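Q: what sequence does this backbone want?
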């Protein structure tokens, strides 16, 4: 093995001379979060502004947040949870930015009605954002003193977690590297704030301004994967669909199928379950969004899917509860049956891309404040978008992203969506680790088992679901002999990998060779990174049209009196609490204007803000 690695190393160093070989992996929290999951979250540290002092000793907080969204990274201050002690408000940790900071008042008029999230006034500011020991200074952040979640029943709870921004889209240029805000008091100068993966890219620590994300599943103890500047190739199976929008893509169809063995339904498959208002199957635009929990789909679609399942629409919670006493329930959620989502082919491809979400992942749990005790629910959430809001779309949230890989190269304006593998077997997580860079201009990514012939999807679920014996005379299901073949392949594979398994390499024999490349790659990367750090040149981004990425910002003297909009936090909150709060606060200090980015002028962040989708 060592000699193979050495060979690969030299091969790779030839291949990569002149390139920076690097990506950045974001660590996941051990904790999981409800009340409608539970879900995984990533670990970050927010706060700090002193480059000379250890970040841990500066004001700040270690918090868990959902990866998702653009522009600002959001955190929850203590005051936001005062009224919501009934809920998991701020369960991922709270952060109270120090009282005097370059805050910019921000007034989004609405946040996301697909999960009842609303926010009334927030502050944008620049402070340290530290992930896995790497601090980006003056990172673009939002603190939300007034925010809550109104569940479909009307019950209100606090916001559970903040969010880690995955980048930023510039409608003109594709990639937006930083944000620049004016302040009403010109002597304070402009505020430039950084976006974490953009800064790493500018500093040449990652090869591209991109991310690759798979949420995994808490039920199956299957950790998530989030990489900036790359992705874990072993989290993507089959053909990948692509689209230009950061999150919105056409959904062609929804179906039900069974991956192997007999069907727990009285049919082997169904298509045409995506219904809008009529009974005719249709296609719709959906927003694929890790910040929202459910499958927020047209009511008719949920009704149609539910008609095949042992679920009841609960009039109190307004969710579909599984009928856990119906034997069909256990049969379905422990079988290889799945809900399928069909998307158009990726660029240059001709086949539709179908992402299968096993029902095993759709046995989720509602908890307080939605229900009084843990309740199994099916996460189809009947949702009607707001026709007045062009960004309001049906959504495929975390429930879907348990089974799907999503990634984006902001610069090439390409989002990738593909099938993610199941939890894995024989002590291997998923199909292993094949961390792979995304190159600067990449608009395609590679996946495993593109033609499906290796049956890696089924293999990754082995041991987690139970295939039923084929019903006699079912003509279209795969046969039991086929299954026998698969399991012997799996057994052979795991035997062959016993050495590699120590290094956390994948399970399947065909993967082993590629996985070894991954190991060589990592070793190499470490060396290369050191060298690159030594040679680090000033950031040059000529191809991105950077007339002036960093506007000169006057450093204001500490003795300068704080302006209106730099009110201490408490004041700001108190102000909001009176009868016509927002107007008076906002009028006294001009609303923030996002001047421009490194490329083009941007619209004001408080109206029709694409990042709020
Ligand atoms: C960091 O923030 C603190 C609190 O606002 C402030 O007193 C200090 O001057 C700042 N330090 C730097 C280096 O900006
Ligand atoms: C929830 O938050 C919104 C926005 O701040 C606010 O208008 C609403 O009154 C809050 N609802 C409750 C019940 O607190
Ligand atoms: C802030 O940015 C604007 C737009 O680029 C510029 O005109 C202005 O001079 C800047 N102000 C300061 C104080 O740098
Ligand atoms: C779905 O129905 C809504 C509400 O009637 C309508 O506004 C929308 O255009 C429909 N979408 C499609 C794709 O038919
Ligand atoms: C459904 O999920 C709950 C909570 O994770 C779990 O306890 C239960 O065993 C699951 N049911 C089945 C049949 O898998
Ligand atoms: C893609 O799916 C749609 C909807 O199911 C179907 O009408 C179309 O024929 C499919 N296209 C291909 C190339 O399979
Ligand atoms: C990406 O494209 C730009 C031109 O748009 C080019 O200057 C740059 O070298 C390309 N990067 C790589 C790694 O090929
Ligand atoms: C952060 O931004 C402020 C201006 O808003 C600037 O004075 C300071 O030097 C920046 N800090 C770092 C570490 O870049």
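A:
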């Amino acid at each position: 093995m060592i000699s193979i690695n050495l060979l690969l190393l030299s091969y790779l160093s030839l291949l990569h001379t002149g390139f920076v070989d690097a990506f950045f992996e974001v660590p996941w929290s051990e904790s999981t979060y409800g009340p409608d999951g539970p879900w995984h979250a990533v670990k970050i540290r927010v706060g700090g502004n002193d480059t000379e002092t250890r970040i841990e000793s500066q004001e700040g907080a270690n918090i868990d947040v959902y990866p998702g969204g653009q522009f600002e990274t959001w955190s929850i201050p203590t005051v936001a949870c005062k009224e919501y002690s009934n809920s998991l408000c701020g369960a991922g940790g709270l952060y109270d930015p120090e009282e005097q900071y370059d805050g910019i008042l921000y007034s989004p008029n609405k946040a996301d009605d697909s999960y009842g999230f609303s926010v009334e006034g927030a502050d944008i500011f620049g402070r340290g954002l530290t992930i896995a020991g790497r601090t980006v200074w003056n990172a673009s952040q939002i603190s939300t003193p007034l925010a809550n979640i109104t569940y479909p029943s009307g019950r209100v709870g606090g916001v559970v977690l903040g969010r880690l921004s995955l980048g930023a889209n510039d409608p003109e240029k594709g990639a937006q590297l930083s944000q620049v805000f004016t302040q009403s008091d010109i002597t304070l100068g402009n505020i430039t704030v950084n976006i974490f993966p953009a800064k790493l890219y500018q500093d040449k620590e990652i090869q591209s301004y991109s991310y690759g994300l798979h949420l995994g599943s808490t039920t199956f103890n299957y950790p998530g994967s989030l990489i900036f500047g790359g992705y874990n190739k072993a989290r993507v199976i089959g053909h990948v669909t692509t689209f230009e929008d950061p999150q919105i893509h056409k959904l062609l169809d929804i179906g039900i199928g069974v991956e192997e063995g007999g069907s727990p339904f009285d049919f082997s498959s169904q298509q045409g379950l995506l219904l809008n208002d009529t009974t005719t199957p249709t296609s719709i635009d959906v927003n694929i969004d890790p910040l929202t929990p459910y499958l927020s789909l047209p009511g008719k679609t949920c009704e149609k899917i539910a008609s095949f399942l042992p679920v009841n629409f609960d009039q109190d919670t307004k969710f579909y509860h599984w009928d856990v006493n119906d034997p069909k329930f256990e049969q379905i959620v422990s079988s290889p049956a799945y809900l399928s989502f069909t998307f158009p082919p990726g660029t240059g491809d001709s086949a539709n891309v179908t992402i299968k979400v096993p029902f095993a992942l759709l046995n989720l749990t509602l908890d307080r404040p939605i229900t009084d005790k843990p309740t199994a629910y099916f996460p189809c959430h009947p949702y009607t978008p707001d026709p007045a809001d062009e960004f309001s779309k049906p959504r495929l949230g975390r429930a879907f992203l348990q089974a799907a890989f999503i990634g984006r190269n902001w610069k090439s304006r390409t989002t990738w969506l593909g099938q993610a593998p199941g939890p894995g077997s024989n002590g291997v997580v998923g199909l292993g680790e094949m961390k792979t860079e995304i190159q600067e201009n990449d608009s395609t990514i590679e996946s495993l088992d593109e033609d499906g012939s290796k049956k890696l999807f089924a293999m990754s679920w082995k041991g987690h679901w139970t295939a039923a014996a084929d019903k006699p005379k079912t003509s279209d299901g795969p046969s039991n002999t086929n299954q026998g073949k698969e399991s012997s392949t799996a057994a052979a594979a795991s035997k062959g990998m016993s050495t590699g398994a120590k290094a956390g390499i994948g399970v399947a024999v065909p993967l082993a060779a590629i996985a070894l490349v991954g190991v060589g790659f990592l070793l190499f990367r470490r060396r290369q990174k050191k060298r690159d750090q030594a040679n680090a040149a000033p950031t040059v981004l000529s191809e991105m049209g950077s007339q002036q990425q960093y506007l000169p910002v006057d450093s204001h003297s500490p003795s300068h009196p704080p302006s209106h909009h730099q009110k201490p936090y408490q004041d700001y909150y108190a102000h909001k609490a009176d009868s016509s709060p927002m107007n008076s606060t906002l009028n006294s200090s001009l609303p923030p204007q996002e001047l421009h980015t490194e490329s083009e002028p941007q619209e004001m962040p408080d109206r029709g803000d694409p990042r709020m989708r």
